[in-house]
Amino acid sequence: MAGVRARSREEKGGLSPVKLIGISGSPSSRSKTLAAVETAVRHAAERHPAVEAEVLSLVDYDLVFCDGRDPSLYEGDTRRVIDKVVEADALVVGTPIYRATYTGILKNLFDLLPNDALLGKPVGLVATAGSDHHYLAIEHELKPLVGFFQAHALPGAVYAKNEHFDGGELVDRGVIRELEKLAEAVVAFCERQRGPLVGASAPTIERRTPFETGEGES
Ligand SMILES: Cc1cc2nc3c(=O)[nH]c(=O)nc-3n(C[C@H](O)[C@H](O)[C@H](O)COP(=O)(O)O)c2cc1C
Fold first, then answer.
1. pLDDT one-digit tens code per residue, 37-56
2. What sign for the dihedral angle of Cα 155, 186, 61, 29?
3. Which of 92, 98, 102 has the most ligand 1 atoms within 8 A of CB, as the residue to mutate?
């Protein structure tokens, strides 16, 4: 996986900016999730001069489906998005709840990433939904996904519902405030840490295509 390994802020040089990436995993072009992620990331950038912020709306990128190849071999938009995530110090990841979990395009992004892309990084989680029913998808679906990457899902994820929006615009003051607090926590984690915070090593999971294992041959 040469060329795609994440480097810590320390490796990049002491007082480098905090690169904060917001990701919206909605396939919808008028997305409430995007509005929520933008609210959090904008707040972080406005309050903290050290923050270099960018929001990626996955619907704007032509990501190929993950096929198991080494992540360094992807090209085009797929390559660009992988590189942005790898280079990020911190993330705010948002998804609409689809069928009680995160969306397929968000899962595909996580499948495309190298295993160490999020190692030790803070991740603020945001979900939008039509109902209260799937609040625990944050705990049971999103946190294990982030956990695979040995990233830190921050406590205090935000769950916003349709009624918190008006014509696609996030209007609920309480939800806006919670998103701002989430953004503050993500930045604070980076500023208190001189690099990613990692515990014990996880077992290595090799990435091999069906053709490399012989399963794809007739
Ligand atoms: C295919 C599909 C599945 C959905 N599944 C759920 C669900 O299981 N639970 C829920 O509360 N809302 C569900 N919703 C509603 C969306 O989560 C909600 O409208 C969300 O805010 C859409 O976000 P977006 O505007 O960023 O795309 C679903 C919507 C779609 C289109």
1. 999 999 999 999 999 999 99
2. positive
3. 98
